[in-house]
Design brief:
CATH class of the largest domain: Mainly Alpha
Number of strands: 5
CATH superfamily of the largest domain: [2Fe-2S]-binding domain
Strand content: 5-15%
Bound molecules: FE2/S2 (inorganic) cluster
Helix content: 40-55%
Number of helices: 8
Number of domains: 2
Low-confidence stretches: 152-158
Structural class: alpha+beta
Mean pLDDT: 93
Radius of gyration: 15 Å
Order of helices and strands: EEHEEHEHHHHHH
Strand order of the largest sheet: 2-1-5-3-4
Shape: globular
Length: 158
């Protein structure tokens, strides 16, 4: 499997059916991607594959071949991800933290200026047992607001 993971080209000798979640955690040492249910129900394992939020527990390595993957370890290198991380800290969006990497990755593709309903829809596949979700939604709203103006202008122009 060859992929660009957090901006780095990686060549990995893994079985094509190995779960992307396990490839990231075991072969890449990127343990920020969490396993909750292992069945596509909780979103704890969410990563970006070519900009789309996916459950890494459901994706075989072969399907990620040739793709650009972003995990929570790389999220902070992108302005949108950094803004979300800072907002989660500031607004108490994390308690135990198990769901947090997945929440942030799921929120990264959300457009600047998104409504609360859009945010809820984007995070609908991500479960949290601790926060009651309000602080998470507040964090995402705040993170979207602090995105650089230039980027927001471009997003609005689409
Ligand atoms: S661990 Fe992948 S969705 Fe729950
Ligand atoms: S902060 Fe604990 S599951 Fe969300």
């Amino acid at each position: 499997m060859i992929a660009v993971i957090n901006g780095r080209r990686c060549k990995l000798d893994v079985h094509p059916m190995k779960r992307l979640l396990d490839v990231l955690r075991e072969d890449c040492g990127l343990t920020g991607t969490k396993e909750g249910c292992g069945e596509g129900e909780c979103g704890a394992c969410t990563v970006l594959v070519d900009g789309v939020a996916v459950d890494a527990c459901l994706v075989p390595a072969a399907h990620a071949d040739g793709c650009a993957i972003v995990t929570i370890e790389g999220a902070g290198r992108v302005r949108a991800g950094k803004a979300l991380q800072e907002a989660f800290v500031k607004h108490g969006g994390a308690q135990c933290g198990i769901c947090t990497p997945g929440m942030i990755l799921a929120a990264m593709p959300v457009r600047a200026g998104a409504s609360l309903e859009e945010i809820k829809t984007a995070l609908a596949g991500n479960l949290c047992r601790c926060t009651g979700y309000l602080s998470i939604f507040r964090s995402v709203q705040a993170g979207l607001k602090t995105r650089p103006k230039k980027k927001r202008a471009r997003a609005n122009a689409r």
